[in-house]
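Usage

Read records sequentially. Each one opens with the input sequence:
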Amino acid sequence: MERDDYPDGPRLLADIGGTNARFALERAPGHITDGATLACDGHPRFIDAVRAYLRRHRRVRVRHAVVAIANPVEGDFIRMTNHHWQFSIEEAREDLGLDTLLVVNDFAALAMAVPDLAAADLVQVGGGATRAGAVIGVLGAGTGLGVAGLVPACHDPVGWTVLQSEGGHVAFSPADEREQRILSFCWQRYPHLSAERLISGPGLSLIHEALGCRRGAAQQAVNPALVVERGLAGDPLCRETLEVFCGMLGTMAANLAVTLSARGGIYIGGGVVPRLGAWFADSPFRARFEHKGRFSSFTAQIPCFVIHAPTPALSGAATMLAKQLGARPARMEGGHHAYA
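and closes with the structure output:
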């Protein structure tokens, strides 16, 4: 049996996206165990997914929980953008018998994890060195497009303040004629095209469809995972889809870099880019990131990092819960949280 170092028992951590709900227990500061991933569609309500996970740990008494969710968090009521779940935070806390239920934006949680990531969890894509004490930008594509920032806290020499954002919903801006044609195709379906419509998992399917129609062939929707698999294997249409996607992501990342003056680096999470593996470094991403007109020399200096840690948002959420409860989680040797 796991030993719990928290006097009031382990803490429940959750990372809720539009497709999957990831759960774990933090049994001691930085010691995260018992990870499990549940399909959101397999559970009618948010609290049903939580109960399904907790049924696997019937001997555990959880009093405090934190949920990082792919959604704006304003007030008590949560209505997910890319899934049908909706709930009152206070009612969910009572229904689950918790003393504390902290709900935070998922990319705010991911951003909070960045300062503690180990070098082995990161792959640098271009640029120079990060500047100590500078602003950090975070973004990533999954079911949606998450965006956040991280600013050094003025009154805490080792602390950070998260800039929560819904930057994935800015209007998409094409950077070349091909992207202009994709935009025109999408306008037939959507009166407003956000960046998230294209720079996301579902966006891969939409780009693939738009490119196929441009070639004069009617296209069936292709699962994003298949687009990635076939693209990496050399399928021409799927490879072009990945190239377009990475170029669009490069533009989005550069916009974030200049908006925040993110000399601390741009960190890329989410479920799509890590699956591209080593090919991503040779994709159009970096060239587009540095294609910034008069500010090209500015973005050229900024390093980008792909996050390969298994569940970084859970670690960041644990930090946010610890701060809520009045204690900072201890750092493990090497400056990162321990996982089991």
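Summary fields computed downstream for this record:
- Residues 328-340 have pLDDT under 50 and may be disordered.
- The radius of gyration is 20 Å.
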